[in-house]
Design a protein that fits this description.
With 97 residues, the chain is of the alpha+beta class. It is built from 5 helices and 3 strands. It has a 3-stranded antiparallel sheet. It is flat. It starts with 7 loop residues before the first helix and ends with a helix. The relative contact order is 0.18.
Length: 97
């Protein structure tokens, strides 16, 4: 399956592991919700095995999403665990290709 390449403008939002951990550790609010992309694929019958409850948001966006029930509030420790889980799932998926 060919996937589109991220433009340089969007590439700024793809963080390496070390930067992601720093964002998590310094965030004022952390929320996690259902991955929109995976949820959509599930409805199309093309779901993958990756976790659904993994979409992380931070700071004011997380505060708003948790306040309105679109994400659940988590602490940095749980978020770091989810980051590690996502990392492991990615490498497992790549190894199976």
């Amino acid at each position: 399956m060919n996937e589109p390449v991220l433009s340089n403008a969007n590439a700024l939002h793809v963080l390496d592991y070390e930067r992601a951990t720093e964002v998590i550790k310094t965030a004022t609010h952390v929320g996690v919700g259902i991955c929109y992309c995976r949820h959509k694929m599930e409805h199309l019958g093309r779901a993958c095995d990756a976790s659904m409850d993994i979409c992380m948001t931070f700071n004011s966006a997380a505060e708003s999403l948790t306040k309105h029930g679109h994400a659940r509030c988590i602490d940095a420790v749980e978020c770091l665990d989810l980051l590690q889980q996502a990392y492991e799932e990615t490498w497992y998926s790549l190894a199976r290709m």
